[in-house]
Amino acid sequence: MIRIGLRDAKAHFHRFVMSIIAIALGVSFVVGSFCFRSMLNDQVTQLMGTNSDHDVYVRGATEEQNDSSFATSGPISSGTSYNKIDTSLVTQIEQVKGIDNVSPPERTIGATLLDHDGNAVATTGAPTLMISASSERPWRAANFIAGTYATGEHEIALSQDAAKKAGLQVGDTTRLIVNGEPHTMKVSGIFTTQTAELGVLIILAQPALVNQLMQLQGEDTSKVDKIGVYGNRTTPLTVQEQQQLADRINKVLPKDSKAHAVTGQSVRDEATKSTQESLGFVQPLILIFAVIALFVGAFIIANTFTMIVRDSMRGYALLRSVGASPAQVFFSVVIQALILGVIGSVLGVLLGWGLIELIDWGLSKGGFPLSGSPTPSPTAVAVGFMVGVVVTVIGSAIPARTAATAPPIQAMNETMNPEKPVTARGWIGAGMVAFGALCWLLCWLLAAKKVSWAWLTTVGTGWLLGLGGVCTVGGVIVLAPALVTGAAKVLGWLPSLAFPVTGTLATRNIGRTKRRTANTAAALFVGVAIVSCLSVLASSMRASVSDMIDDNLHADYVLVSAALSQSVSPKAVNDVKHTAGVGATTAVRTLPTVKLMQANEQFTAMAVDRELLDAMYPATHQEGDAAQAIEHGEIAVGRKVADSNGYAIGSTVEMESKNIGIDEAATKQAIAAYEQQVGEQVAALQKDAAALSAASDEAGAQAKRKQAQEVLDKARNVDRKQFVKTKETRKTKKLKVGAIVSDSMYTSDILMSTDTAHDLCPESMMPISQIYVQAKHGTNLETLRKDLQKTLKPYYTISVLDREQFKSQTSSLISSLISVVYALLALSIIIAIFGIVNTLALNVAERTKEIGLMRAIGTSNGQVRGMIAIESVILSVFGTVLGILVGLGAGVVVRQAYRDNGLSTMSIPWLQLVGFLGAAILVGLVASISPASRALKKPVLEAVASD
């Protein structure tokens, strides 16, 4: 039976081609998902080895709530956080034997590098990371290829990628934008790191400069997450040596310091594991494509084997007649499936490898180079291989069972069992669809606040959405065979009018094999349903943003920083006010340190002027008067914040701000301590010089005097900024809710006046995110734009946006969703073509004699092609229409469920959905070419004589 299976596989190999392609597609996505995850894991491991490269870390001894901290651990980091420790521990740690260097790893992302033309260096979403480092406090991962560390506060060293993007070399002068203010800097060196930094631009600067920048951003530089220790600044210690050094440090740490020393390797392992877990969403995202491809592949495989089994039924009947058991016949078909699965899986592994290589190349070109290995691991290969083989065997199981269980005499006469009735299946499917629709209806009513049943609120919209989706999609797949006959008549009505003969025949033929037709349409249905749902959401997002800006934004221009993590300079506000043609301006300040004492919903606190709410971006849907409320020292609360916290007009809320300010006393004490230390060191050297001079060792005395002078010179050149100490101050204020705003722009915000905000935090803790500008009456807007651009040129990173540009920038995230939509659509179309071709080929093969008789009585080749093309188009449109209907319903419900998250406007992309139908017709026409050619290739007499 094995030989028979191998022989049949060889005989029908040309029919396996499309099934092999389907398997290869599915396996490629499976392998690709594992490869990409492994590649990211390798990248993260290397990044942690580079960016957290100290031999020992001294960190807090008390574990706190999980958090992520970009500034302290590098471009990628997250995980368990610990209490912060005082930087004064550095002095005590330095006394431990076997330590080469001790430093808090100060890092921040609050700077923007300008290139040689004065433009902000683009990082495609990745930030610019500034790290404190110097020749005295080096970063071991940095390998200088030109120049060296910065030696003053007006110098910086750049990573090779940063220097290349900025077009800068050692000795060049550029500008660094910090808190909206430009600072002239000289490039002191260019360095590389051991691994790619995912597009992050790295700048090394003097510790005092980085410290100052962090203070300006409101960070408490007197307390840090951890302190890094190098046992050797050039060569890493072994894990055993790290532990020995950590033990020695723990012995000298004060008991009340709440600090503990751990090995650098343990910190890297912890951060690596946590970051890899946070990136775990990538693999399921790619596996979605794999599931779709394998779902379709299973149908294609089943149809292929159904065709092969039909052609071989007489052979199987003969085998049964001479004594072969049903199990042996079944096994001979499965052997073919195994061969098919092996070939498809091998090709899929290679295709998946190539896919990851292509992604790696694309990311590198896009500014996100990866240094992890794209080579598939043995696990990825094994999983992909097994998935391909198992899916193939499952797909062949039903046709194999048909071959094994058909009575020999019936099989000899080629009288196949008639298709089973689909009535019962139709009722089951209809019930599932009805239940799914009911879940969606309840979800919609709950989100629209049309019902307030306690049990429904407990279930929540998420569960109702998911349950409704599963039941609806599954129900449509179960119901589809019962819909085929009716759908064929409806969809075939127009072709029957245009082409009475071929159209009528095509409509009749579609209804012959209801299950097969429905299975093929189901593959296209799933893909189109996902695409249609995402299209509705993307269109609604775009419409919501458009309506929000068109209906509410009355400013002529919006000024925003074009750089990531960069605020607008306060000086720019005054300069804009005095620009010719400007009638009114208002700045929006965010309050990152201001929090509610108790809050059930995340929100953004903002300080605004009445001008914003009255004229620039007025609140149109509100309870109370938001502009009047903030003017009277009250707050205006967004509807989402109010509902989640139970606020009403008149409610009193307590707000708190944790602010970081300079501790003058501690700073003076730190400077005095340093001066005392220098004085004692100089006095000791001078005493040694006097003793040597008294002993007639004038050369030795001269060396000591020289050493003392060097200490003094170094002390004079030390930047006193490094001794600045900060302290945390807390301010609280009870405020009354004067208005509740329902506009999408403000639904997640708490608004207060600038004067009220000053009672909670200083001006430095109120970064400006936007400036709204209205022109004077009669001012030419294009002239005003040029004047504003001229005014803002010295600030380099501030963009002048009109309403359409502001709308486009606000909608930029939607483009990413659109790209996913079209990627899914492309995949659905590709695999749908394979499925339709296979189904039509099987239909044509079963109607060989019928088509031969039609040709014998005068039916032209064009009419035969037209009949098959109409069948293909009806099948394709059937699956697409089902997908559009379900996807449209899902999109409407999801939009309603997330209305308060910015999806305020319902928008259905009718043109896009019509385009999907057009694509379905095109898919049907393309898919019909091969089966039609195969039907016409067989001579008429041979086709008529076939039995």
Short account of what is shown:
By secondary structure, the chain is α+β, with helices and mostly antiparallel strands. The chain is 58% helix and 16% strand.
Write a concise keyword list for the protein shown above:
58% helix; 947 residues; alpha+beta
Strand content: 15-25%
Q: Low-confidence parts, pLDDT < 50 over ≥5 residues?
A: 66-78
- End-to-end gap: 26 Å
Percent of residues in helical segments? 55-70%
Principal-axes geometry comes out as globular
Instruction: Output the radius of gyration.
Output: 36 Å
Give the class from helix and strand content and strand pairing. Answer: alpha+beta
Question: Can you characterise this structure?
Answer:
The relative contact order is 0.11. The strands form 5 sheets. Strands 17, 18, 19, 20, 21, 22, 23, 24, 25, 26 and 27 form an 11-stranded mixed beta sheet that branches. 58% of the residues lie in helices and 16% in strands. It starts with a helix and ends with a helix. It is built from 32 helices and 27 strands. The protein is an alpha+beta fold and 947 residues long.
